[in-house]
Amino acid sequence: MSDDDAVDRATETFVAHRNLLFTVAYEMLGSAADAEDVLQETWLRWIEVDLDQVRDQRAYLVRITTRQALNRLRTMSRRKESYVGPWLPEPLLTTPDVAQDVELAESVSMAVMLVLETLSPTERAVFVLREVFDVGYDDVAAAVGKTPAAVRQIAHRARRHVDARRPRAVVSQRRARAAVDSFLRALEGGDLQGLLDVLAPDVVYMGDGGGVKHAALRPIVGADKVARLLAGGLGRNTIPVAFGPATVNGGAGLTIHLDGELDSVVAVHVEDGRITGIYVVRNPEKLSRTTSETPLTLR
Questions:
Q1: Mean pLDDT (the chain, rounded)
Q2: pLDDT-based confidence at residue 237 (cuts at 50, 70, 90)
Q3: Which stretches does DSSP call E strand in the chain?
Q4: pTM over 0.90, yes/no
């Protein structure tokens, strides 16, 4: 086989699994930009592989991606230490099929991605591969450089950690969208009582401006505080503002445009028909993938 044929064969396989590899990298990193860099590094290593010696090409690509993402994750942890205000995952406008896949939508939701931030890099890699993508223990061990026995212990510890912190229940997309639509109407009308009606008593508001855009420097908790923050901010605003519904990280969310320019992407978590989490990303560096929908997959 000529070198050109080998590259063509490698390219065909890589493209066939690209959405999967991006999803793996994104769930490990919480950053689409860094996930794309990981895919570039994965590709450069993949074209050097003798494919005739690879038994399972999908597993091999996932292994390369995981190793590169682990290296990137350790570097990112140092960047986050100096980050101004809360660090939120980079939001994605996702395709309709992501919302229809309950398991996938939950795994990339802002609420769950924030829980993954509380794991160590190795715990996160093991949890994502084993619990989200159902990768076998032997393949996970090869990807993270641990023994299968050690991976089983790490998986158990990570699963217990995530289960104790993940959202209690997953509501239907229809109910979630209804709650967000009510939230949207209250925002557009500056309706304080309407906001209080749709917000859960213990709702958490988090804003990410990255030190570039104004945002709350710490989470705000409680329906009254969050409603007054939102209503007060809109009341002081003198620039034309437009809200629009969107599917953000597999769930109901919205976009905010100021004077025609995208200002924020908002992910919302809903439980029992009321909003329990509002995640507002304003940092321009994290809004680069909000001009089009991003395809994600578990397979």
A1: 92
A2: low
A3: 199-208, 220-221, 241-248, 251-258, 261-271, 274-281
A4: yes
